[in-house]
Write a structure and sequence with these properties.
Blueprint lengths: L15 E2 L2 E4 L6 H11 L6 H9 L3 E8 L2 E10 L3 E9 L8 H16 L3 E7 L3 H9 L3 E6 L10 E7 L3
Parallel strand pairs: 5-6
Antiparallel strand pairs: 1-2, 2-3, 3-4, 4-5, 6-8, 7-8
């Protein structure tokens, strides 16, 4: 007997901060997401990679929408004992205003509600701004993946948030 699939969106999805709201990404959002992706990363994900993520059963995605405009997104996997964040980006004009933090906090809250024990992610060793954001939410560095990024073989820090579950 097949287990019923959990809802794709976090519980209590009516989260909003002012006019910021969150919703699940669908294929019609790909152009806006790609624009943010390309302005955020030197080695951006392809259209095919994003669409592939929407078909992975454990994958979840949230868009941050401000006044009807997509300003950021987060893609993560819900696994049996952890949530693994794969991608997080905010459009350049909206950075350092708390929108990335809001996306990340929404995913952490979803993880808590699901009863998973930790949230994990990888971040470029050179991306100090992202590391500071993650550390401010309680993530700690627990290791290094050498040569993780294929564009320049940069190392990634493995960061973990222990949820104490």
């Amino acid at each position: 007997m097949e287990k019923p699939q959990e809802p794709a969106l976090p519980c209590g999805f009516s989260v909003s901060a002012g006019s910021l709201s969150f919703r699940e990404m669908d294929p019609s959002d790909i152009d806006e997401v790609l624009s943010i992706e390309r302005s955020s990363f030197s080695y951006p994900w392809s259209v095919e990679f994003f669409l592939q993520e929407t078909r992975v059963p454990c994958a979840r995605s949230l868009l941050g929408v401000l006044d009807g405009k997509t300003i950021g997104y987060i893609i993560y996997w819900v696994l049996p004992y952890e949530v693994d964040i794969h991608n997080l980006a905010v459009a350049p004009a909206y950075r350092r205003k708390g929108f990335g933090r809001s996306l990340l906090q929404t995913v952490v809250e979803d993880a808590r509600k699901r009863g998973v024990s930790r949230v994990t992610l990888e971040v470029r060793k050179s991306n100090e701004a992202a590391q500071c954001l993650y550390a401010s939410l309680g993530f700690t560095s627990c290791g290094v993946r050498q040569g993780y990024y294929s564009d320049n073989n940069e190392d990634a820090l493995i960061m973990v948030l222990d949820l104490g579950v």
